[in-house]
Every structure is written in C-alpha cells, then in structure tokens.
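To assess whether the prediction recovers the assembly geometry, we first specified each molecular entity separately, as shown.
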Amino acid sequence: MLIAITFYLMAFTAIASAFMVVASRNPVHSVLFLILTFFSAAGLFILMGAEFIALLLVMVYVGAVAVLFLFVVMMLDVDFVELKQGFLTYIGPGMLVAGILLAEMILVGAAYFAGETKTVVPTDPNTSNLEAFGDVLYTQYAGAFEAAGLVLLVALVGAVVLTLRERKGVRTQDAVKQMSRTREEGVELVDIDPGQGLG
Amino acid sequence: MISVVQTVPDVALAATEEVNWLIWGLLKTGQVLLFVISLALLVAALVLADRKIWAAVQMRRGPNVVGAFGLLQTMADALKFFFKEIVIPAGSDKFLFILAPILGLVMAFAAWAVIPVAPGWVISDINIGVLYVLALSSLGVYGIIIGGWASNSKYPFMGALRSAAQMVSYEVSIGFIILTVIFLSGSMNLTTIVDAQGAGIWNWNMFRLNPVGEYGLWNLLLFPVMFYMGVLFFISALAETNRPPFDLPEAESELVAGYQVEYSSTPFLMFFFAEYVNIMLLSAMMTILFLGGWHAPIDIGIQFIPPFFWFFFKTAFLFFMFAMVKAIVPRYRYDQLMRLGWKVFLPTALVAVALVSTFVVAANNFGWNA
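The predicted structure of the complete assembly is given in tokenized form:
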C-alpha cells in the first residue's frame, strides 16, 4: 500500500517533470525540472531496493553534473524570441530522434512482456547492495569497469588539453615562491636624510 | 509486490505488516520532531556561542543585553525576523525565490536522519549512511544557487556562482577523505564506523596509536595519514559550509552579502538556520568519522557518563574550533580557495586513499590484523 502510493507518486512526478523539461519556456526551469526527474528516478531505484544506485544517481547527476549544467545555463544570455524562431528548423531532427527512442522503448517493452529478460534482483537478499556490487564489479566485469575508467581518463585529459592555454605575460601567483620569501629579501630599510630624497 | 528495501528494515516491516503502519508512522514522526526541535534549540544556542566566542577573541563583550548574559539574544533576533515584511524583488522568479531557502533548510535537516548520536539513537540506521549524507549535502547547494539566480540581481548571482563552484570542489576532496575511513571500517554504515573505533582516544581514526589494537604495531603507520586526513576534513568542512575563512559566497567587502542580498524576514532566517544546521552536521560527521562518535576518550572509570554526552561534547568542541577559525583567520581570495581545493587537498586525499587501501589489503594478506 505504502510502496504502491510512493511508486505512483514518484513515477508520475518523473514523467510530468520530464515533460516539463521540454515544455518550459525558461532554460533554467528546464534544468530544475531535469533535476526533479533525476530525483524521482532515484526514488524509484530505492523502491526497487537499489539504494546504492539511487544515492549514486543523486550524488553524481543531481549533486555534480546538474549543478554544472545549471551553472552554464544560468550564465547564458537567453533571448526568448530567438529560441522560438529556431523551433521549426529543429523539428525535423527532433522528430527523428524521438522516433528512434520510441522504437527502442517499444522493443525493450516487447522483450520484457515476452519474458525474454533476466530478473532485476538476482542476488542473495542478505548481502547489502554495496557488497553485491563489489562482488561482480571487480571480478566478472573487471574488464568493462577498467575500460570505463580509461574512457573517463581520456575525457579528463581531453578537457584539460582543450582548455589549457599558455598565455605570455600573465602575472600569476606562485604560492611556493611567496611562502619561501624571507624578511631579508622582502624588506629593505632605507634611511633617508631629511631633504635629500632617494637620489 | 516489490520485495526489498532491506536497508530500511522499518519501512519493509511497515509495508508487510499493515497493522503496525500507523504506530510506526507516529513513532518515526515523534523521533523526527525530537531531532528537529532539539536541533532548532541548539542552533539558537550556537549562534549566541559563535558571537560570544568571536567577541571574546576581539576583547569585546558580545551580546549581553537581552536576558542574563544575553542568553535570549538569538530568540529576540529570530522573533524580529519573523515579524518583518517579506520583500520579493520585482523581476525576480517569485516561486523559486521562496523555494530556495525552504530547499536549503529541508536538506540540512534531512541529512540528520542517519546521524547516530548515541548507541541506537538514530532515526534511520541505513547501510549507506555516508553516501546519504554526501548526497544530501550536495543537494544543499541548490538552495544557494537557486536563491542567487531567482533574486535577479548581480551580487546574489555572483555569490551563487562562487558558492556552486566552491561547494562542488570541496565535496570531491571530502568524498576521498571519507573513503579512507570507509576502508578502515569496512562499512558505509555510520553506526558500524563508530563501533569500529571503540573507547579510548588511541582507538579513534584520527589518533591511531594503539600498539595492541586491531593492526598491532602496524597501526602506527596509519597514524600520520589518518591524522592528516582528519585535519583536511575539518578544513574542507569549513569550505563546504561557507564558513570563514572560506565565506566567499557572502564576502561583504566584495558581494555585500552574496546570495542573501535580496532576502529579508523569514526566508533570510531560513538560510541562516540552514547554515548553522549544516555546520552542526559537519561537526557531527567529523565526530563520527574521526573522533570515535559516542566513545569516551579513556576506557576506565568513567562509564557512568552516558555516551550521548561524549558525542555532544565532541561536536560542541568542533563547533568551538569552527568559531575560533572564524575569529582568527582572514578570508581567502577566490583563486587561492580553488588552488587549495583542487591542487592541494585533492591530490593529497588521493594519495592517502591509495596508501590506506594498500595498507588494508597488505594487512589482510600478511595477517597484520592479529
């Protein structure tokens, strides 16, 4: 009863806010609705007993990715009239992507109802999520896991290479140099006679 | 229908045995109310303590007019805020403007659901309590970002941007620092982490000096790493809660008051409240992760003192440190803050993660944990 109510609440919120991501006029509102969608999805994961994935979803997507997303979108100088004008030119590719996604979802749904998919929770109910994950992640799927790590590393290095610029003549602060300064090299006492100046 | 939810046994129980549903609900509501009310009263005390400590360092008297020794000053301030007019700037996003402080306060309180303050004294003893606290503290950023953006004004917006960058940066190093503790305890359950430390200051994660404990003499190898991690956690906690010397989101000399500029009355009070609840949360987390939670600093002769006292005492002590840092250390510049987070804390924490995990694997393989 309680679980059913929670499920329908979460599922409805997820779908409604996913719709609002597309429908809302203001890009910042769109991102906030996207966050609400992530959050509801995390709630659904908890109902399935996958609390580890749920909290990872909240931490990684809501806590980090969406924050940076919001960060960028907030700084955009959005012209709402211009946004509307682009609508017709993008409708073709948009419909194509939507069609592909719909076809994929129908296929997955058909496979599920034909009984060809595996069960979602195959582990012993006495082990915690975390242990169950660790058991398969570092044994059975170790190769795929390492490969995923490698892909992320390449992305990381790529981001650094793209954004790092060496600019000449910029006076940046060197903390080590600053802290290793002593009184002798930093301060000079000049005793000037009255009326003479430094000369 | 859907089985599981094993991490929260109470929920599973309530779902299976429909009869207990109401009783369970009332019980949990009672517990939550108890936590919220005591936290609210504590915030009132802490704000005063903060100001008194600050005043003492600067050789002032601090608030001393309302009530004896100014004890009722916070109450008077809160009451004043309640009766002020809520000003919503023209051109602001009204819904988000009101939502932001509520979001911040709710997230700050919600994280306390998994904090064990004494053996068994916890609202929900879930297996991944550490992740839950991290997740909710990262959600707390939204209160500040949304508040800054919805105000439709430049200072709040700058404050929000700064705060977003700062809190996301330091969350990364906090995550790695916590990972070292998780390796040593073998669990993400906060109660298990506390129990893995035990009574006696030499058993706590920050001072691993017990030569006859879990890892024998090898324990002394861990001491320098874990002590350093404890210090890093404290400094990261300062940055995470926007406390001085890292209070750049509200640096008054640059941004007037940062994301709070346009806020008045109760919404401002909620931001203020959320900040102090978060400070207490981070103090409590440090107590649990590094200072042995509710365990006494010596394990003989003082058993009559209840465990809750020790938890409270340590958390209060950490808050005192927070207040002293505010009084003593000057504010960082923004680029210095980022350099410290990404170029100093993150690499150090990463190295510590490598060292501690190697240590634990070696201890298990060579039988050091006699």
